[in-house]
Design a protein that fits this description.
The complex is a heterodimer of chains A (111) and B (113). By secondary structure, chain A is mostly beta strands. Chain A has strands at 4-7, 10-14, 19-25, 33-38, 45-50, 56-59, 62-67, 72-77, 86-92, 100-101, 105-110. Chain A is built from no helices and eleven strands. In chain A, strand 4 (33-38) and strand 5 (45-50) form a beta hairpin. Chain B is built from no helices and eleven strands. In chain B, strands 2, 4, 5, 6, 9, 10 and 11 form a seven-stranded mixed beta sheet that branches. Classes of the chains: A mainly beta (111), B mainly beta (113). The A-B interface holds A 1-2, 31-32, 34, 36, 41-46, 49, 51, 89, 93, 95-104 and B 4, 33, 35, 42-45, 48, 50, 55-56, 58-59, 90, 92, 97-99, 101-107.
Chain lengths: 111, 113
């Protein structure tokens, strides 16, 4: 069922560093690519999203880079903070079909 | 603005029993989806309802069912519970039919013993 592959499974970054999480998709009909952040005991929360007609989107310290020809997209977290420690999921959606999620990346930012 | 509300937060059930989980979406959201989250399988899509109709369904056995009411509130039911059904069940709603991102509830943690 998984059509979105996410890596790495876990990531440890020093405070102030850059966190990079990568995703690859198979279905070229996907037209919406969100990233979700999940803290323990909470549901995933929409962090940032991009559509395939844009190559990059930035919101604060979070940036999505999108490569349509390679069918890949990535999340960059600049100046990573301990409060960013969470599990991050990439996802892809096609029209009215269900959203497909990557397997998740557990990010730990060390002080 | 109230978020997506799921009840109960925690449940412990015995194998063979059935369970009903409830989800109240954000006011005005007509699309409600359900996901199962487990450490090994990640977020797995169960089904989606829009205006009381099931529009999409994931690859789960028929023991998993759901419905949506006219006020967009949704319930999911799992019959004949198995140990492997232990998971966090997440409900998510969105306003439009696509491309607007989901708002998730905090989930119902189901433990089957």
């Amino acid at each position: 069922q998984q059509q979105v592959k996410q890596s790495p499974q876990s990531l440890i970054v020093q405070k102030g560093g850059i966190s990079i999480i990568n995703c690859a998709y198979e279905n070229t009909a996907f037209d919406y690519f969100p990233w979700y952040q999940q803290f323990p005991g909470k549901g995933p929360a929409l962090l940032i999203a991009i559509r395939p007609d844009v190559s990059e989107k930035k919101e604060g310290r979070f940036t999505i880079s999108f490569n349509k020809s390679a069918k890949q997209f990535s999340l960059h977290i600049m100046d990573s903070q301990p409060g960013d420690s969470a599990t991050y999921f990439c996802a892809a959606e096609q029209g009215n079909n269900d959203m497909r999620f990557g397997a998740g990346t557990r990010l730990t930012v060390k002080p | 603005k109230a978020g997506v509300t799921q009840t109960p937060r925690y449940l412990i059930k015995t194998r063979g029993q059935q369970v009903t989980l409830s989800c109240s979406p954000i006011s005005g959201h007509r699309s409600v989806s359900w996901y199962q989250q487990t450490p090994g399988q990640g977020l797995q899509f169960l089904f989606e309802y829009f205006s009381e109709t099931q529009r999409n369904k994931g690859n789960f056995p028929g023991r998993f069912s759901g419905r949506q009411f006219s006020n967009s509130r949704s319930e999911m039911n799992v019959s004949t519970l198995e140990l492997g059904d232990s998971a966090l069940y997440l409900c998510a709603s969105k306003w439009q039919t696509s491309n607007y991102g989901y708002t998730f509830g905090s989930g119902t943690r189901l433990t089957v013993v």
